Predict the structure.
Amino acid sequence: MASETRDIIVNGLWKQNPGLVQILGMCPTLAVSTSLVNGLSLGLATTLVMALANTATALVSRLVPPAVRIPAYILIIATLVTMVDLLMHAYVLQLYLVLGIYIPLIVVNCIVLARVEAYASKHGAFYSFLDGLMMGLGLSLVLAALGGLREIFGKGTLLSGIDLAFGPAANTYVIHVLPHYQGLLLAILPPGAFIGLGLLIAARNRIEQIRALPTRSTGLLPQQAA
């Protein structure tokens, strides 16, 4: 049990990270990640939907006829997304208006449906919940990192727009990383999203290459080296 739990956590956050390895859900990833707050907000909303959708699917998968399983799973996801959409509209309206159509579009996000179909429909509720949570958090980390990177180079700040979620008093939490910085427009435009994501993917791949170097030099398999 501990080994399977560890594998799920590592896969979601690193080995099978949706944003850096599986390269799924690129439309919201590239469109919303103009700042750390925007990216992290959408990532956490997606995480909540994934965790609950996986759990619900695991609980009802044996009751759903194979012929209608995809429509049934989409109905579950759509119900949860509607709940999240209404909650954000009620409590964080300004942030909701900024994220716009990308909250409802979580319904058709291929990351959510892929985990429901590939994992949750075949496993128990606990592991399905954990898988959805870790995959969602893995995506959230990518969105936050990409949004933070673009925000620094585009505006010279971090946490810009945090007042949209916590009110005007939260403006004091904005970090001016580069004071008097004029900003790089490219960073907050669509090309900046592609460049930033490419840099993050390259950094992850480089880390994996460095980690593999000792086993190559000794000629041992990773299990033997451990």
